[in-house]
Amino acid sequence: QLVESGGGSVQTGGSLRLSCAASGYFYSTYCMGWFRQAPGKEREGVAAIRTRTGGGPTYYADSVKGRFTISQDNAKNTLYLQMNALKPEDTATYYCAAGYSVGLCSRTYEYGYWGQGTQVTVS
Q: Is 89 helix (H, G, I), strand (E, B) or coil?
């Protein structure tokens, strides 16, 4: 089970930290990532990280580089997404995902497990 939290409403320039609590099974997958989907748009990759091997981040979308940071706490089986300098175009439902891909882990087809999503609104 993947459970996201930390979404909410924030003003432009503000910060939020999303959390994804994962059961031990999911945390043993090869990668975990954050995706987002705005109304009328396709789900897009935001950031991804190697989990089992502890290889660190594998991917950041160009639109979030320098503003967002993906990290993990192995002791808590929790994935985080620190979002700074938020912009209105970051408004979307954010999803946590886990998968067994050995690639960049930036595409939806690389993931088999998804959380229910958490809403982020920037105004």
A: helix
